[in-house]
Amino acid sequence: MDEVEALAVDGLRWLRGAARDTGGGGLGWPVRPSDDDVDPMLYNGTAGIVPVLLEAWRHFGDDAYADTALRAARSLADAADEHPDDSLYFGLTGIALVLRAVHRELGDSAADAAADRALARVRSRFDGTRWGDLFELMGGNAGIGLGMLRCGDTESALAALEPYVRTAEPTAAGVTWEWRSGLEPRLHHLAHGTLGIAYALAAVGAATGRADLVALARAGVAEVVSRDEAGPEGFLVAHSDPPHRPDVVERHSYGWCHGPAGDAQLFRLLRDVLGEPSWAELADRCWHTVTRSGLPRRLRPGFWDNNGRCCGTAGVLALACDRIAEHGDASGNTPDDSRDFARTLVEDLASRAVRDGDGARWSNVAHRPAPGVLEAETGWAMGNAGIVRELLRYVRLSRGGDPRYAFTWPDQPAVRVAVVQATEPIRPVGGADVVS
To answer: Which of 21, 63, 204, 422 has a CA that sits 20 to 30 A from residue 237's CA?
Structure first.
């Protein structure tokens, strides 16, 4: 664990070294260090980096990480007044969620006020049906609804989700939705597909007592489950039908975005909000498929070519740690291979890290006919922030610590652990108090 923790520290050092001064005491990050401009978005920009800074502050008790998060919040506050996108992963909803977290954890009232401004802009740009071409979790209504729910605005959350009632497309097994205006392929999984929409419908419907939205979520899930190719022990559904960009996208994926590692997160949510054992069984089937797919080995170009949280190894590690936290006994033993597989994932991340005087970082292999190494990225999706965040949680969990994150992602349910009280505040392990 000391070696893994040291790797995470090196990853944080490289990440902090890639920050740019944005003026007025603010800090921001480009997607890649060679890029000219900083990016505020949650997916692969500054907003996605703040959560790992909060995680590091909590983990080490070092106020330097909190100070960096506060400076990042200043640049995000500027983006709240000018960013053109409204979505969870690419726009103002995600930025507002992170600003709220900075206020909650670090007591920054300016961040809270900026979050209010950002959310007001999101509400003002809703046309009654959607915010733009994207109509799914990452860039459309589903993600905005989840973000509004997390920010306590149930009225706006419902407004974002209700258009799915009238736009649902009936199928032989359930319903599906167009994920982008004018595109024929129907995507099935969490990031851009039916299951991501179902996640938001179930979360918002359960929180607001809207049984019709929960029922619609069930219908969306039924459509995707009907496409399973790996039952009865496993669960594997194709990326899309008809295949979307088959020249570069494999028919089956296994990560968070388009595969069973993400599908299991929806099944965990349904287990929690509906209390039906069948959903836990589906999550187990997802895990069965993931652990027998061959990952994290890169069996061929395009099969497993990413270390990151969205599409790669870190996203699978997040699910592995969820399972360890929920199924482990007092000694940390699990009834399945979750802990062993988590260790395999961490060892793979360690072996693929590039370490030098600047710290540690990860380069991904592009899925293309002639694979090549891409420049290391900074953010949550494909970069250091998403990887280091999961490494720190793995270390803490392996030492018997709190399995919760400092910032819970809206599409990853918090773990159900009896010994942890949900009302307990999260504080740094080193004993530092809130930074003002």
So the answer is: 204
